[in-house]
Amino acid sequence: MKRNSLVIFLLICTALLFGCNSRHVASQSSPAPTSTVPTPSSSIAADPITNTSQSDLSFTNCAKGAETEDGFYSVSYYDDWSGCLVFYDYRTRQSTPVCNEINCQHHSDTCTAWFGDANNIPRIVSNNRQLIYCYMGLSGQVQKPALIEIANLDGSNRRVLNEFAPNETLYEAFCVDSGYIYTLVTRVYKETLQIEQALERIDLNSGVCDELWHADVPAGTAYFLSGCVNHQPVIKMIAQSNSQDDERATIASQTHTLIMVSPADGTCTLLYSWQQNDGLEAPLPDTLYYITKDHFLCRFAADNTLEKIIQDERLDPITTQIQYADDAQLWFASNPGGDAQSSLFQLNFCDNQIEFCPLSQAGALQILGEYGSEVFVMAASDSRMETAKACFMADKAQLTLPADETVIEKFADVGEQYS
């Protein structure tokens, strides 16, 4: 088998294993924190690494773009599916291509905002100081080098930070702090059919790469970067029994284990473990939540224990998407009936009351950022967020009031229009 086909096949198998996680959840008792599950024997901590800025480390798996203090970066698409990086400025309410060239059409290699390969659009990450472009390493059915580029916040000085080996691909979630980006790398060795995964820390100034953790990946096992707790990356291991007679039994046998990895020295700490049907983790940038099959919303506290917040039928590990939270509220979308349209809800931490957000009746909404007393919202007509989108700012205090156009302030497009 050729290397490209092998890599694609193995990665698809891994993705399918993870995808089954969100489709087969049944009723069991609510899980409790455990410290008895052993750390996987294949996990290897790295040599000590110092001078890390872990106090501001956060997690991102947002396919829509990257939030900063002043706005949101997102890729808009042309009819040919090439992309243009656009900045939504919270203060001015304008969306502009991330390009400083005068009279630029934002549709050629000379433009710093343009991504010409429709099958290789990068994930956008930011640490409020820099833009980080993360290319996964697969482009359609063709493997391309996994790559990380870096640029100033205005798109200038775009350059390659790190290019990975031909047999390496990146997982689509990352952790980042003021000085480093953390990525889970998958390595496939065609000669031996061996798969290895590693958590790597890359210096955003020098591009120097340090391996914090790695593990051999036997059949029936996969690792994912799943969030952060106390500003430390969390890796999830899914392991299944291969002795089952059918696919459903194999899926039901999966054990999920969360492992916290110190960004300072790679030390691994067992965080939590549960069976496939018990629930599912739900990450936000600085908090890792967990939803149980009996509808408890929980979060990992400062002492790494799992604490219950509220129980509500609208909270379900299959159909609930936690979108955003501040000190006072948490917003989540729920689709308990399995319909195409999801509803948006607001959980108030002060009294644990859940309120419906009527704006979601007009289309699928995703809260992606905040600016003072307002939230930044991306809207689409379908719950997959795949149709033409609109972005607006909405006052937090009015999200649960009857829907009214005065609640929102849409962004004005500046420059080229996109599909």
What gross morphology would you assign? Answer: globular
Roughly what is the average pLDDT, rounded to an integer? 82
Residue runs with pLDDT of under 50 for 5 or more positions:
1-52
Helix count, DSSP H or I runs of 4 or more residues: 2
Report the biggest beta sheet as strand number plus sense, adding barrel if it closes. 6 strands, antiparallel
Determine the N-to-C terminus distance: 39 Å
Structural class: mainly beta
**Total number of strands:** 34
* Helicity range: under 10%
Computed CA radius of gyration, to the nearest angstrom: 21 Å
The percentage of residues in β strands lies in over 45%
Question: Helices, strands, pairings?
Answer:
Blueprint: H1 3-20, E1 44-45, E2 58-60, E3 66-67, E4 71-77, E5 83-89, E6 94-97, E7 114-115, E8 123-126, E9 131-135, E10 138-139, E11 142-143, E12 147-151, E13 159-163, E14 168-176, E15 180-189, E16 194-203, E17 209-216, E18 221-229, E19 232-239, H2 247-252, E20 255-261, E21 268-275, E22 279-284, E23 287-292, E24 296-300, E25 306-311, E26 320-325, E27 329-334, E28 343-348, E29 353-357, E30 364-371, E31 374-380, E32 390-395, E33 408-410, E34 412-413
Parallel strand pairs: 6-34
Antiparallel strand pairs: 1-17, 2-14, 3-4, 4-5, 5-6, 5-7, 8-9, 9-12, 10-11, 12-13, 14-15, 15-16, 16-17, 18-19, 19-20, 20-21, 22-23, 23-24, 24-25, 26-27, 27-28, 28-29, 30-31, 31-32, 32-33
